[in-house]
Each structure stands twice: as structure tokens, then as C-alpha cells.
Design goal:
The protein has a six-stranded mixed β-sheet with strand order 10-11-5-14-15-16, with no helix packed on it. By secondary structure, it is of the alpha/beta class. 47% of the residues lie in helices and 17% in strands. The protein folds into three domains: 4-107, no CATH class; 239-350, no CATH class; 354-549, no CATH class. The protein has helices spanning 18-34, 41-59, 69-79, 97-101, 103-107, 124-132, 136-148, 153-164, 171-177, 184-203, 209-269, 273-281, 288-314, 323-350, 433-441, 541-549; strands spanning 4-9, 12-17, 66-67, 353-363, 370-376, 392-395, 401-405, 408-415, 420-430, 447-450, 453-457, 460-463, 472-480, 484-487, 513-517, 520-523. It is built from 16 helices and 16 strands.
């Protein structure tokens, strides 16, 4: 096993084995000797080292953090051999000819930068010109035309591009911007051109003095504005990054806690109330732990991506998690969405049909009798009687788990028949009409009638094997005309119905004697009103009832 050496190359630290380090040292020394007589040698060497550092960073991955001879040879093949050095030339001959032939393909690709060497304001147009292989003058004319035509957006777009597109500062970046391979010969060529241009500018300074001063003032003004916008944008990005980190981290922590509390612990321990509720709601063929895991991945992976994005907004040189990890997470996310979608479709088919089971019973009450209605709760399940669309898991007197619900709807209607009747309509959903009807029949609901008092259970139950599929019970009471109805206070929530149910028992009519009329009731013991007239204070509801029959 070779020893490794820590090196600092262009401001970036790398781990490199001893053999590769020795070869890299000889390579750089040979390059220095080849440029020993050239002005700008140090700048050329710095750019070459920066380019080698970029290539080393591309070679590092999660499985290998050390630069070896193999990676170094690939980098040398991209950079090319020094042309003019005379010593140790044979050391670099082991880089294969195939790698040398691939030099241009490996190092050439488009990259967008701002060309501040040929800028008018910020170099955006000239940078776009290099990227799209178009003369910058046409892009500048396009900006001017859009602004003159009254579009305000181009100005904002230009400012955004100014902030987002990096400036081509190094020689490597300028070569990438000009779509040229970044190797030793091109770096040398570029440095020579820049030195020549700098020399020419010095010679021409007297001729262009006044013209340059004017343009310099404009450039300084716009450069200052650019720095201000860049500063504001940078602060906004940092703030937005912190916000993303807080939100995404909170989401991830919540998901992890939820995964372990409702998923893993319940899966290991077996007896978990959450699992019981899930088993009576969800499709039996999908295990609950799998659903929890799918939800965790669907929500957690985007949250993790936002967390990484937030870190990158704060830490500009943050290393990427790697393309392999990105692909794995994306594939997991897609498969999780597909899996949960399949579950959703299956769940929908389980509740696609409605079924009902109706029973009809007569109650013996005379036309002039008073019928009292009350709701009866069961202290084993719930103390107070109150209607709710929810369901709960309870244990009956034998210790068996059952589904309990107080989703009972009471409806009172008038009838021309002389016999009072009670219709019980059990409702449920299922994967077919027959399945839904069987589930509706399995609802256990009871009532009693004794001494002119109709006592309705405030709840119904069904076996846990029937699962919860929207079960409910409607109690429709048909009363003959002339019957007097007295509803207990505890019926209030059960007959809170909209007009479409044609319920003549209104909320607020509890604890009152109501005379049943055709599709309405008349209050017999209301203090001030009977058929719109004032009533004597000593007149009882019995006297009012007798008058109504006269």
C-alpha cells in the first residue's frame, strides 16, 4: 500500500499517493522549465495548477478520495505534454496515446461566463455571444430593441443574469467561455495574448486617453450598481438558504420521529393502536409499515434536496453528494410515488360503490298522543351523546374489538297515514354493490319504544373485520298529522340537517311540545305565539292543542 501525501493545489487540498505525487512534481517542474524564458511564467503556472485542481476534483468520488497514478495520467492526457523542456521527458511517456487522442474531447465543453474584457456594462451580452456563437453586437441590439419597444422585463432579466452568471476571471474560465480546450498550449497562448494586449494598451494610452476615461466612468458606475445588486442578492440567498434549512430539517426530523414511533416500533412490538386503525381503513394487501415508508420517501427526499440546496446557498463551495446518490434518490422517489399511487387507486376501488340496508317498523301511538324522542349513549364507549362523523376502536363487553361510531342522522317527517313508522337505513361503501350491502347489513343499531317514548341509540357498532367504509345510519321517523312531538335536548346534534332532508324538526325546537302538521310543526308551549296571535298567560299547551282541533 502506497503512502499518501496531502497537497494544496490552487487552494484546494487533495490526498495523493507518493508515486503520483513524485510524478506530478516532475511534471510541474518540467512545465516551469519550458516557460522559464517567457514573461508571465508565474501566471501561466498558476492557471495550469488551477486547471489540474479542477480535473482532480472531477476524479474524486465517494469510493476513492485519493489521487493515484491512473488519475494523474488521465489529467496529463487532458493537459498535454510540455513542448520545450529537455529533461525527464521520458517520465511522461507512460500516458497512453489513446488518452492523448481524447484530450480535446475531454476538455472542451460550453460554459457560460460574463466576458468583462469586452464588456459595455457587465459583459452579459458578450458572454452570451460566446456561448451561442453569435456576435455580441446582435445581442446588444436585441436588448436595446426590447427596451425601446416598451418591454420592462429585459432590464430585470439583464440584472438577474448579471448577478447569476459568473465573470470569466481565470485563463481556464476564459478558454471555456471561448469554447477552447483547457490545456497547456492554449493556456500559454492565452497568457501571451493577454500580455500582448496589455502591452498594446500601454502604448496606445495617450491616443485613447479621453475615450477610455469616458467609458471607464460608465463602466465604474454600472460595476458599482452590479456590486450592490450582487450584495443584495447574496444576502437574500443566504436568508432564503437558512429558511430552507430550517423548514427542511424540521420536516426530516418530524418524518424520522413519525417513522420510528408509528412504523418501526409498532412493527417490532406488534400491538399498536395506530396499526389497528390503519388495518380497518387501508387495503389489506398493503402492509402499514410499507405505506409509512413510502410516505417517508415521498416527503423526505424532496425535503433532503431542499436541505442540500439551502446549504449550497450558504456555503458556496459545498461539495456535491455525487451523481450516483442523486440518481438513487430520484429513482427511490419515483418508485415511491408509483407505489403510493397504486395504493390510492386500490383504496378508491374498495369504496367505489354505495350500498344500503333498510328496515321498517311501526310504533303504536295514537294521533292525540305525545311522543317523546331521546338518544341513549353507552358509558362503555362514550359518556355524552353527540353526533360525529368519526369512528373509534372500542372493546365490547366480551373484550372483542369493534368499530364504534355516532354517525347517526335523525329525520322527522309528517305522514297522512294514521300509523307512525320508523325507517332505519344502514349505509356503507364497498368494492361492489353486494359487498357494500353486506357491510351495511352488518351494522348493529338498536332502539326501543316504551310508554310513548322512543329511545334511539346514539351510536352503532360493527365488527372490526368489516373495516371502516363510510358506515352511517339514518333514522327516519314518520309521524301522523296531529301527533305531538317532544324532543329531548340530547337530540340536537343528531337532527342538525340541511333542507334537502325535509326534516320538520328544527334545531332549537328541543324541549318543546310540537304539533305535527303537514310538512311543518306548530309550537304548543311557546310563550307568545300561536298562529300569530297573543296568548293569555294562563293558557296551557293542552288548551292550545284542544283549540287546534276545534
Amino acid at each position: 500500500m502506497n503512502k499518501t501525501v496531502n497537497i494544496n493545489l490552487a487552494g484546494t487540498f487533495f490526498h495523493i499517493d507518493e508515486d503520483a505525487f513524485a510524478k506530478l512534481t516532475r511534471y510541474l517542474d518540467a512545465i516551469r522549465r519550458s516557460f522559464s524564458d517567457l514573461n508571465g511564467q508565474e501566471e501561466i503556472i498558476k492557471d495550469i495548477e488551477a486547471r489540474i485542481s479542477e480535473l482532480f476534483s472531477e476524479k474524486i468520488n465517494n469510493t476513492s478520495q485519493v489521487i493515484t497514478i491512473k488519475e494523474l495520467d488521465e489529467v496529463i492526457a487532458v493537459m498535454g505534454q510540455p513542448e520545450d523542456y529537455m529533461v525527464d521527458e521520458e517520465i511522461f511517456d507512460d500516458a497512453s496515446s489513446d488518452q492523448k487522442n481524447q484530450t480535446r474531447n475531454q476538455s472542451f465543453y460550453k460554459q457560460l461566463f460574463r466576458d468583462t474584457d469586452n464588456k459595455f456594462i457587465a459583459g452579459v451580452s458578450s458572454g452570451l455571444g460566446h456561448y451561442f456563437s453569435v456576435d455580441a453586437i446582435w445581442i446588444r441590439l436585441a436588448w436595446i430593441a426590447m427596451v425601446l419597444l416598451g418591454f420592462g422585463a429585459p432590464i430585470l432579466v439583464y440584472i438577474v443574469l448579471w448577478v447569476l452568471i459568473p465573470e470569466a476571471l481565470t485563463t481556464s474560465e476564459k478558454l471555456k467561455m471561448n469554447r477552447e480546450p483547457v490545456n497547456i498550449s492554449n493556456i500559454e497562448k492565452k497568457i501571451k495574448e493577454e500580455l500582448k494586449n496589455a502591452s498594446d494598451k500601454i502604448k496606445e494610452v495617450d491616443y485613447d486617453k479621453y475615450k477610455d476615461n469616458a467609458q471607464k466612468g460608465v463602466n465604474t458606475f454600472f460595476s458599482t450598481i452590479g456590486k450592490i445588486f450582487a450584495g443584495i442578492f447574496s444576502v437574500f440567498c443566504k436568508f432564503f438558504g437558512i429558511l430552507l434549512i430550517i423548514l427542511s430539517l424540521s420536516t426530516i426530523i418530524g418524518l424520522i420521529v413519525g417513522l420510528f414511533t408509528t412504523g418501526t416500533f409498532g412493527f417490532v412490538l406488534g400491538d399498536n393502536e395506530v396499526f389497528d386503525y390503519a388495518s380497518i381503513v387501508l387495503v389489506a394487501s398493503f402492509p402499514f409499515w410499507l405505506i409509512v415508508l413510502l410516505v417517508f420517501l415521498i416527503v423526505g427526499i424532496p425535503a433532503f434536496a431542499l436541505f442540500i440546496l439551502g446549504l449550497k446557498l450558504i456555503i458556496t463551495n459545498l461539495k456535491s453528494i455525487g451523481m450516483t446518490a442523486k440518481i438513487i434518490l430520484f429513482v427511490l422517489w419515483i418508485f415511491s410515488i408509483i407505489g403510493l399511487s397504486i395504493l390510492g387507486v386500490k383504496q378508491a376501488t374498495e369504496q367505489a360503490y354505495d350500498g344500503d340496508y333498510i328496515t321498517e317498523n311501526s310504533i303504536s301511538i295514537k294521533t292525540t298522543d305525545t311522543l317523546k324522542i331521546e338518544m341513549l349513549s353507552n358509558n362503555r364507549y362514550e359518556y355524552d351523546a353527540s353526533r360525529s362523523g368519526s369512528f373509534y376502536l372500542k372493546s365490547d363487553e366480551y373484550g372483542n374489538k369493534i368499530i364504534y361510531s355516532s354517525n347517526i342522522r335523525l329525520i322527522v317527517r309528517s305522514t297522512n297515514d294514521s300509523v307512525a313508522k320508523v325507517f332505519l337505513e344502514h349505509k356503507a361503501e364497498g368494492s361492489s354493490f353486494d359487498n357494500a350491502k353486506e357491510r351495511a347489513e352488518a351494522i348493529d343499531y338498536q332502539y326501543t319504544f316504551k310508554n310513548n317514548t322512543l329511545t334511539l341509540n346514539s351510536y352503532f357498532t360493527t365488527d372490526i373485520a368489516n373495516k371502516y367504509r363510510g358506515q352511517e345510519v339514518e333514522v327516519v321517523l314518520y309521524l301522523p298529522l296531529g301527533t305531538v312531538l317532544f324532543a329531548d335536548n340530547n337530540t340536537y346534534s343528531y337532527h342538525s340537517n340541511s333542507s334537502r332532508y325535509n326534516d320538520i324538526l328544527n334545531n332549537g325546537d328541543e324541549e318543546k311540545y310540537l304539533l305535527i302538521q303537514k310538512s311543518k310543526t306548530i309550537c304548543l308551549d311557546c310563550p307568545k305565539q300561536l298562529l300569530g296571535k297573543e296568548n293569555p298567560e294562563d293558557e296551557t299547551w293542552e288548551n292550545r292543542l284542544n283549540k287546534s282541533y276545534e
